Amino acid sequence: MLENCSLRGTKTCAMLHMPDCKDCPAANGTDPEKIAATVARFEEATAGADIAALLTKDECELCLSEKKQKEGYVIYDLGHVAEKQPEREDWKKLFHARGPEFDFLLPLQLPVCPTCRKRLWWSRYVVTVVTLAVLAIVLPFISFLSPSEKLRAVSRLLPLGLAVAALLIGLIGGKILRKCLLRRWEKESLLDVRKHPAADMLLKNGWRPVIQDSGKMPSVMYTKKALSRGLGTAPMAE
Ligand SMILES: [Zn+2]
After folding, report:
1. Which residue has the higher pLDDT, 193 or 28?
2. Model confidence over 122-136: pLDDT tens digits?
3. How many A from CA of 70 to the centre of ligand 1?
């Protein structure tokens, strides 16, 4: 523990959420006032999103009707677009900042129940799963037929044509299935986390997804235990 640290017991210290004093930027000789100013800027950038309160909730944040018990957290990685470049390299590292674009990173953690988690996974991967399944059924069949005289007699391109047709059937079938599933699930689960009030507020206030959203669904990760280190991970009451 750092002796005589002016940050000890302060809100800045609690918000930094370091596992140990030796992990804190103050231990490396960074001016505590500068640290406090940076943390204050982070607090300002996340104002109104109530990210600390989310971490103490026991119920799923994605259930739209009856809220179920949480099982873990969906993590949506956001970055705050920098107005100017961070001054020093070590500041970039210590405050989760990366590259020239973001001055802060925030792993937005939303409590999630098993049902919503599974729905999130399937809504994201159903097209891939169906396409691979169709290919797995059709490809051995094609390679089994390919050497046969009959098939080659029709056309040498027929096996390739069949493979392309299988790919298209998988893709289109997967998309149709996803549409059906989403129509059913979207009444009960918030599958687009960008629409969660906290994410919505942050996205309107200078935060952007770190991994660019591809397609309809934003890119999210899942963790059973909440992240417990660094800015934006402290589950504290105001
Ligand atoms: Zn849920």
Report:
1. 193
2. 998 999 999 999 999
3. 7
pLDDT digits 0-9 by tens, 29-72: 788 888 888 888 888 889 888 888 899 899 999 999 899 999 99
Which residue ranges make up each domain of the chain?
A: 1-45, 57-226
- Which residues are found with C-beta within 5 Å of the ion, ligand 1? 60, 62-63, 68, 113, 116
Average pLDDT of the chain to the nearest whole number = 85
pTM for this prediction = 0.79
Cα–ligand 1 centroid distance for 186 (angstroms)? 11
Contact 70, 112 (CB under 8 A): yes
CA angle 236, 33, 226 (to 5 degrees): 25
**DSSP codes of every residue in the chain:** --TT-TTTTSHHHHHH--SSGGGSGGGGT--HHHHHHHHHHHHHHTTTS-HHHHTT--B-SSBSSSPPBP-EEEEEEEEEEPSS--S-HHHHHHTT--TTTEEEEEEEEEEE-HHHHHHHHHHHHHHHHHHHHHHHHHHHHHHHHTTSHHHHHH-TTHHHHHHHHHHHHHHHHHHHHHHHHHHHHTTTB---GGGSHHHHHHHTTTEEESSPP-SSS---EEESS---SSTT------
